[in-house]
Design brief:
- With about 350 residues, this protein is an alpha/beta fold.
- The protein is about 35% helix and about 15% strand.
- The chain has one domain: TIM Barrel, CATH 3.20.20.
- Strands 1-2-5-6-7-8-9-12 form an 8-stranded parallel β-barrel, surrounded by 4 helices. A two-stranded antiparallel ribbon has the order 3-4. Strands 10-11 form a two-stranded antiparallel sheet.
- Helix 2 runs parallel beside helix 4 and helix 5 packs parallel to helix 6.
- The longest helix has 26 residues.
- Keywords: Signal.
- It comes from Microbispora corallina.
Length: about 350
């Protein structure tokens, strides 16, 4: 009897220990790309010159790409609605976002998307949605089909966003390009950017989480939790992302939880004047120190599978007129590329987890 009691006593810690979630493979591992003019993309690039500044994206040092997604940032909302042609824009699209640039990435198995908006174009989003949100959505779908790219919604109106107009934009886009769970049609991929956590862009985040990012009836493919004002600590990044998973039931109306499989976490690779470990050194980077959380974060009321979809990095080449760029000698093979190797990032991107 004593032996039985002793055996049970010894087994208690193991019986009481909670099951550890299996690590989900990282599926999205991408970078926003600002071109060489702080996200304007206002001039056509020579492919040789472009490659000299961006080769790390397509070659981590062993011939394999460092990422499986590049998001060209940004398209001006009103110019897209009006299909404007001017010195920096051709038929509503920045002149630098050419078929050749898209092919540069796609020919290496890297998915390409165009981002509409950004913080600089918040007022332009408001104007385009107020003028003709449905036509705006149809124009976005036409560009996506013509270039063979997806579209990212980056509408950063923190106070009083036009959610009716945004719904009309999404409905019009989806009328042309329905949601495709297989991911086979690049143009059918439609995503949205949310704040780093749940305390900014609250109205957009609540609406997107409740109506467009549900695992049981998806409208948008996924969301990106954007970078905060400055690079966070490991715990700060995890806290932000956990907010999306938990939701904010104390808000009125409540902010619902988001399935981990419906969003990525954003980190800086170019910020200020310093080359960050996230660009240069995977072993000391946040994509390394947060990796366990990103691969095992459990759902808290939405979704059924553990783990975020992956990471997005802000931003390749020159995201601001001042500060560091990711062009040589600051290219990111050692950080982003090192992470692609460590996490065995699939290239091309596979069909994404849905729940």
């Amino acid at each position: 009897m004593r032996r039985l009691v002793l055996l049970v006593f010894l087994l208690i810690p193991f019986l009481a220990a909670p099951a550890r979630a299996a690590a989900a493979p990282i599926q999205v591992y991408g970078s926003w790309h600002c071109g060489d003019d702080a996200c304007i993309w206002g001039t056509v690039r020579d492919i040789g010159e472009f490659d000299s500044k961006n080769h790390w994206l397509v070659d981590r040092g062993d011939g394999r790409p460092s990422v499986n997604l590049v998001v060209l940032s940004f398209v001006h909302p009103v110019k897209l609605l009006h299909r404007t042609t001017d010195a920096q824009t051709l038929d509503g699209v920045p002149r630098g976002m050419t078929a050749d640039i898209v092919s540069y990435f796609k020919s290496r198995g890297i998915r390409v998307m165009l981002s509409i908006g950004g913080i600089t174009y918040t007022d332009a989003w408001d104007s385009a949605l107020a003028e003709n949100a449905a036509q705006f959505g149809r124009n976005a779908a036409e560009v996506a089909q013509r270039l063979g790219v997806g579209i990212e919604i980056d509408y950063e109106e923190n106070t009083g966003p036009n959610l009716v107009g945004l719904q009309a934009f999404i409905d019009a886009y989806r009328a042309v390009l329905p949601y495709d769970p297989s991911g086979a049609n690049p143009a059918a991929r439609l995503t949205i950017d949310l704040a780093a956590g749940d305390r900014w862009l609250i109205d957009i985040g609540r609406k997107a989480t409740a109506d467009w990012l549900r695992a049981d009836r998806p409208v948008l493919d996924y969301a990106n939790a954007m970078v905060p004002a400055r690079q966070p600590s490991t715990s700060g990044a995890i806290d932000n992302w956990q907010e999306h998973i938990d939701g904010k039931p104390q808000y009125s109306p409540a902010f619902p939880p988001l399935a981990p499989a419906k969003f990525t976490g954003g980190l800086y690779i170019a910020e200020g004047s310093k080359v960050r470990p996230e660009c240069a050194n995977f072993s000391t980077s946040l994509q390394n120190s947060t990796g366990t959380f990103v691969q095992t974060a459990a759902p808290k009321g939405a979704g059924t599978s553990s783990g975020l979809l992956g990471y997005m990095f802000w931003a390749a080449e020159r995201p601001s007129t001042r500060g560091v760029t990711t062009a040589p000698p600051n290219s990111c093979e050692g950080g982003v590329g090192g992470g692609a190797t460590a996490y065995a990032i699939p290239i091309p991107m596979p069909a994404l987890r849905q729940s």
